[in-house]
Amino acid sequence: MTTPSSAQSLRDDAGAAIGQRKFTEAARLADQLERLGEPAEAANLRGRIALMRNRSIDAAAWFRKCIAIKSDHIGAWANLGTALAETKAFDEAWTAFTRAIELGLPVRLILHNFGIVAAEAKQVEAAIRLIARAVADGLDEPEVYTVLADLYGELGDIERQIAVLDQALIRYPTRADFLDRLYQLKTAICDYPGLAVIEDRVRSHLAFCVAGSLPPGMPSFSFLMTQGDGAHARLNQSAWDRPEYRRRPAKAKAKAGRKRLAYLSADLHDHPVGRLMLDIIGAHDRNRFEIVILSAAMPSDESRHRRIADAIAARADQVILVQDLADDELAKLIRRERIDILVELGGHMMASRVQALWAHEATVQISFMGYAGSTGMRCIDYIVADPVILPPAASSDFVERVIRLPHPWLPVSPEPVSPPPSRDALFATQARVIVSLQTPQKLSLDTVTAWARILARTDAILWLFLFATTPGRDALAERNLRRFFAERGIAADRLRFTHDWLDRPDHLGRIAAADLALDALRWGGHSTTLDALNAGLPVLTIAGPAWPSRVAASLLSAGGLGDALVARSVDDYVERAVRLLNEPARLTAVRAQTQAAFAAGNLASWVAAYERGLLQAYEDTVDGVHRDIIVA
Which CATH number applies to 423-601? Predict the structure, then answer.
């Protein structure tokens, strides 16, 4: 290589070397810069090398050395902000970024990191002002809308967040990510005016992607709310059927004795997945399985989270905290731990670590519980299902094979239930009470329209739970739901809203004070259906066109309540609800059936069948057999 003759060419060559991860070459060029009388530039380059090598603390030291030599070095200030952000020193990172902007750094160069740092440093309003100034000066690119929407979300200003996304779609009408976020936000706050138009755009976009086998460019919430099983599976396959997710293991050798069964999840705390897995892990046959927990949960100071996490740890043989591991590091850990059966519990939901399974380091890899559908990833060998939530014909587009249980997809495990509070104390009425336990995000327009039809033909009150964690979202959802029902002639005193958390026994006891639970039509209750059944409360559902809408039907059918509580259409759903609410003897009989059917639960038989499925999947994988498994 010809020796560069100027500081500028040295900087250019060093930058190219860093981009190609040729760090030794970049370091040599930094040494030349220092000999050429450019110590500040040399320090900045060494900091960039350290940053690329994930040595953020070393990087910050080099950038500070550069700034000590040349206090107005824009690049070093910006790089220092990035390094400090990676060490979670967000207040200092904010100071570094704003200093770089004062010195003339275009906001667009650090926009994404700037937004994250502003949120963490509680400088959201200041960041919005700086971005607005940059927009006024001509900044115009999609990332601006993404960052502004995130910042308004941090403030809990959901309406401004929606306004930003509305503008984003006007400016960039083909951006699927903007469309998806707008759809999710409007659904989450029950902002139904205009929602049908947005949903039609979502459906049209997804239909276009399905037809062309194109990546959808939006996360799975929209698939789950709008698509049948086949289209959902094809969309995820388009998104995830990449070479890096297709690796298959070499033929494994059979292993005698106990199998190392690992559960990977970010939800093994006071979360529906954590509560269910606590019971499942406790019921596992320890002569057959050694239980390893790969916990990706972020540490929490809340006692309710620690209580479940500690109880899971006490029932497992080994717990490994993996929340700080990159995907490739987690894959290597799975190989080192010699995992025979790896069950991933999140799919494509928030905080999931499913992408770490790309290298297929466990003998057999299985998706279960946290995701209601196909992952579309060929590194997942099996999904766990049952014949109701996933009929054989519905899985034809799945890349995974299916372990079909003879029992419902989710086990019923009775929990302690406190005595129900008096109806007068809770509702100040003796009218019938219908309850929905789903979050507002799952209450589609067709669901609440059906509920309005039920209320119009009965004297019942509707009781809704609003437990959103985003600031401001609950209040907007309540306001919009009240407006929706008022426009359909339903008086305000026939709606009740609950926002407070109770301990599990008291929560279940409170649910038992209602007369009937109504399932959402598209994304029905999973753990919330189990909560209602544990409280002895009948759940009226409809077996819809996709897995998320059939979980309650699976549970009720197994309990012998399919004829009474599983509707065949929306009209049938409304008619059944009206009959139950207007005929007290019928409702009393169905409630007694529910209590009798689910009093004992099915955990022991469920776990035994589930274990048979896991072991058969392991044996088939070792033998090179590729087939669905029907568990007897």
Answer: 3.40.50.2000
- H-run or E-run covering 496: strand 495-498
3-state DSSP of 27-54: HHHHHHHHHCCCHHHHHHHHHHHHHHCC
Structure tokens at 430: 């003796």
**Strand partners of residue 293:** 263, 319
Residue 626: what residue type?
Answer: H
The three state secondary structure string of 93-126 is HHHHHHHHHHCCCCHHHHHHHHHHHHHHCCCHHH
Kind plus residue range of the DSSP H or E element containing 186: helix 176-188
Are 41 and 29 a contacting pair, CB within 8 Å?
Answer: no
Centre a 10 Å sphere on the Cβ of residue 328 and count the other Cβ atoms it contains.
12
Quick check: 162 and 178 in contact, CB under 8 A?
no
With the C-alpha atoms ordered 389, 409, 249, 355, is the resulting torsion angle positive or negative? positive
- Residue whose C-alpha is closest to residue 375's, from 245, 208, 276: 245
Cβ–Cβ < 8 Å for 131, 144: yes
Please give the pLDDT value at position 245: 67
pLDDT in tens, 116-138: 999 999 999 999 999 999 999 88
Q: At 225, list the tokens.
A: 């709310």
Residue position matching structure tokens 């039907």? 553
Comma-separated ranges of CATH 3.40.50.11380 domains in the chain: 249-411+607-630
Boundaries of CATH 1.25.40.10 in the chain?
Answer: 7-105
Distance CA 420, CA 510 (A): 5
pTM for the full predicted model:
0.87
pLDDT for 216-244, tens place per residue? 998 888 888 899 999 999 999 998 887 77
Number of Cβ within a 10 Å radius of residue 446: 13
Domain span(s) for CATH 3.40.50.2000 in the chain? 423-601
CATH 1.10.3720.10 holds for 249-411+607-630: no
> Residue holding tokens 């990172």?
93
Question: In what helix (H) or strand (E) does residue 168 lie, and over which residues does it extend?
Answer: helix 158-171
Indicate the helix (H) or strand (E) that contains 315: helix 303-315
CATH class of segment(s) 7-105: mainly alpha
Answer yes or no: is pLDDT of 252 > 80: no
Name residue 503's beta-bridge partners.
none
> Residue 578 above 80 pLDDT?
yes
Q: Are 226 and 202 in contact (CB under 8 A)?
A: yes
Alpha helices, DSSP H only, in 428-569?
445-456, 473-486, 504-511, 527-534, 551-558, 562-565
